Amino acid sequence: MYDVIIIGSGPSGLTAAIYTTRAALKTLVIAGAKWGGQLMLTTEVENFPGFPEGIQGPDLMANMRKQAEHHGAEIVDVNFIKGDFSKAPFKVEAGEKTYEAKSIIIATGADTKWLGVPGEQERIGRGVSSCAPCDAPFFKEKDVIVAGGGDSAMEEACVLTRFAKSVTIVHRRDEFKASQAMLDKAKANPKIKFVLNSQIVEILGENVVTSVKLKNLVTTEESEMSTNGVFVAIGHIPNSAVFPGIEVDEKGFIKVHEHTKTNIEGVFVAGDVHDRQYMQAITAAGFGCAAALEAERWLEHQEG
Ligand code: NDP
User: Fold this and answer.
1) Ligand 1 atom at minimum distance from 171 CA
2) 202-234 burial, b for 16+ CB within 10 Å, e for fewer?
3) Quick one: 293 and 189 in the same domain?
4) Tally of domains in the chain
5) What confidence tens digit (pLDDT) does each residue in 217-241 have?
6) How far is CA 228 from the centre of its chain?
7) Span 175-200, average pLDDT
């Protein structure tokens, strides 16, 4: 019987594990067969405090894992299959075993929604990105494209203008999901241009990105536009579908009732699986810390 089972091994899950183990709680992390989350797919991380020269995403995750293990976390690299959170002790089926715990922290993250066009996946980190705050400095004085028409696209575009020479927002409609305030801000920025009613249908380049093929969805005309980078900001897919009984919002993000608590007592949530606002490694780590402290308090209260 574990005090806490943490499902997920990105910055939120591993930070939660560091806190729960240091609080002497018997902790199991269901890390997934591919452990470490989205940072395992990035290169240089320059915005995680404590690394003045930056750090490679996989190295940062390896450090977090080592730190959690150093404090006694048991980490298994198997996939979560299903959970029974209907009554305590909670049951978690993962790999070929069933584990039991008094409390659960869900930290399964979210995946970037990609365009799914030819030339995209193989150029992630070589001109294709989903995180302007992480990668904008690599595009100093370059021309970049942002795909999307929501708040994320507007925000990514504004962040990019601090470095890039020009930013073109390519959006599939001529109306926007973005809030008026964020749209106005983007429109007022002299570095930002808009290409509307258009879809990126292919990303091109020998090794790094050099252009995209665009399709005008009204005229069906295709054209090529030179660019050094493509920032995809068309939303995220939270990994929440596998938790029956856990309340989610209309986009699938887990609903937080109060201080990392889900609708089920004893089940807490941390990171991108509930956070549709910030989605940064450092905020995920912060939520992991908060969920661990809440789980610790809740367990104390149960036993006290
Ligand atoms: P949204 O779902 O709001 O917007 C996604 C955008 O991407 C839409 O314009 C959509 O087009 C477009 N899109 C979706 N799929 C495709 C596709 N396959 N090809 C081309 N375009 C596509 O997601 P966001 O990530 O922008 O925002 C998520 C939430 O986070 C929102 O609630 C937002 O308000 C919030 N947020 C808030 C911020 C802030 O306040 N600072 C910053 C960032 C996000 P279409 O419009 O045609 O559907």
Assistant:
1) 21
2) bbbbeeebebbbbbeeeeeeeeebebbbbbbbb
3) no
4) 2
5) 999 999 999 999 999 999 889 999 8
6) 24
7) 96
- Residues 54, 118 within the same domain: no
Q: Give residue 140's domain range.
A: 114-232
Q: Specify whether 203 is located in the same domain as 260.
A: no
Looking at the predicted structure, is the pLDDT value of residue 43 above 80? no
Ligand 1 center to 91 CA (angstroms): 35
pLDDT band for 49, please (50, 70, 90 cuts): very high
Q: Which residues form the pocket of ligand 1, taking CB atoms under 6 Å from any ligand atom?
A: 115, 147-153, 155, 172-173, 177, 199, 233-235, 276-277
Instruction: Take atom 25 of ligand 1 and give the residue whose Cα is closest.
Output: 235
Q: Is the pLDDT of residue 114 over 80?
A: yes
- CA 59 to centroid of ligand 1, rounded, Å: 30
Is the pLDDT score of 185 beyond 90?
Answer: yes
Last residue of a domain, one of 180, 213, 232: 232
Q: Among the three residues 187, 207, 232, which one is the final residue of a domain in this structure?
A: 232
pLDDT for residue 244: 86
Q: Are residues 134 and 162 in the same domain?
A: yes
50-82, pLDDT tens digit by residue?
999 999 999 999 999 999 999 999 999 999 999
Q: Whose CA is nearest to atom 1 of ligand 1?
A: 150
Task: Give me the CATH number covering residue 227.
Answer: 3.50.50.60
pTM of the model: 0.78
Residue spans of beta strands (DSSP E) within the chain: 2-7, 27-30, 44-45, 55-56, 74-76, 80-84, 90-94, 97-106, 110-112, 128-129, 143-147, 166-170, 192-195, 198-204, 211-216, 222-226, 229-232, 236-238, 267-269
The Å distance, Cα 159 to ligand 1 centre, comes to 16
For residues 271 and 222, state if they share a domain: no
Are 202 and 147 part of one and the same domain? yes
Closest C-alpha residue for ligand 1 atom 15: 234
Mean of pLDDT over the chain: 95
Cα(95) to centroid(ligand 1), Å: 35
Domain identity same for 136 and 37? no
Strands 229-232 and 128-129: parallel
User: Residue 134's pLDDT is what?
Assistant: 83
Instruction: Enumerate the active-site residues.
Output: 131, 134-135
Nearest CA, atom 2, ligand 1 = 235
107 plus 119 within the same structural domain:
no
